[in-house]
Amino acid sequence: MEELMHNSTLDTIYPREATILAAVCACVFSAVGVLGNFITTVALLMHPKLRGHVTTMFVLSLCVSDLLFCSINLPLTASRYIKQQWTLGPRLCQMFAFVFYGNEAVSLLSMVAITINRYTLIAYYDMYSQIYTSTKIWIQLLLIWLVSFGLMIPPLLGVWGQLGLEHDTFSCTILPKDGLSPKKYLFVFGFALPCVVIIVSYSCIYWRVRESKRKLEGRSKLSGQTAREKEEDSRLTTLMLTIFLCFLACFLPLMIMNVTDDGITYPWLHIIASILAWASSVVNPLIYAATNRQYRAAYGNLLKFCKNNPVTKRTTWGSRTVGHSSNSPNYVEKRNPLNNQPTKL
């Protein structure tokens, strides 16, 4: 503990210009990320039709994770880069690393869940409403958070590695203990493996859709879906793929630098990689607004509410594009009006 209490000196391996840039970016990303993710969370919860979508549940998990990161980790990150040292004690340093890596895992596993959901909708359409019931969705969400932060318990307790301060970089991270560190194993099982699952799943989605289009070209239905429903689900799948690719572009440089350059031979590259990783918690709301009109409808409804003009029951902005999606919780009842067994979604 005495070693953890020791603060690094101002003579760090990072140039002062790099630390100033990092501090400014952390402050900007913190403000923009908290605002953007909070607005997105509220907008989705207030939009009655979009709120009930299965995919939205996992998107909300992603938003909450990014909101925690922007409100907790980024302000502390800005502080340490401004001071060029960690001054907040060993316990908070450990919790910083715990929340940082845990949130990163939550984000990635939420994307895995979204990808599997998209594939299930396309490949097993007839079984979709049975597979994604309310209970099963909440179980998946609970597992995502428990597994993500559960992976960090061994280093937190000092059983396998430890969480603490790296003095040369004044960063709170996973450190070796007794010559052992779980860092590279966590990279493989907590980052690389989920990325492989996502890439394989989207590849399967692509080939499945391509094959279906070729076989059923010119017909009005595809696996029980109308043309409009298929189009909306395709747009949502494209949106989620875009989010994953942005996440990968943001976090992959940091992972590569942490694994291949432990000695910080290229400090500027480490700073840039870190800034890119922070940006991943900010860009998602921008992607939602820019690429999908369903989410723009949710933002529009929130804006109306803020202007003291509450959304009417018709939800005019969202009804055309959201209400008939096969990802909607009431979709089965709409297609089968004589069915007296409501879905659990």
Automatic annotation (TrEMBL):
It is a multi-pass membrane protein. Keywords: Cell membrane, G-protein coupled receptor, Membrane, Receptor, Transducer, Transmembrane, Transmembrane helix. Pfam families: 7tm_1. GO terms for molecular function: G protein-coupled receptor activity. Residues 316-345 are annotated as: Disordered. It is found in: Cell membrane. CDD domains: 7tmA_GPR84-like. SUPFAM superfamilies: Family A G protein-coupled receptor-like. The keyword Hydrolase does not apply. Signal peptide: none annotated. The chain crosses the membrane at residues 20-45, 57-76, 96-116, 137-157, 185-209, 236-256, 268-289. It comes from the Eukaryota. InterPro entries: GPCR_Rhodpsn, GPCR_Rhodpsn_7TM. Residues 316-330 have a biased composition (Polar residues). One of its GO terms (cellular component) is plasma membrane. Residues 36-288 form the G-protein coupled receptors family 1 profile domain. Belongs to the G-protein coupled receptor 1 family. This is Protein trapped in endoderm-1. It comes from Papilio xuthus (Asian swallowtail butterfly). The lineage of its organism: Eukaryota, Metazoa, Ecdysozoa, Arthropoda, Hexapoda. The gene is LOC106121535.
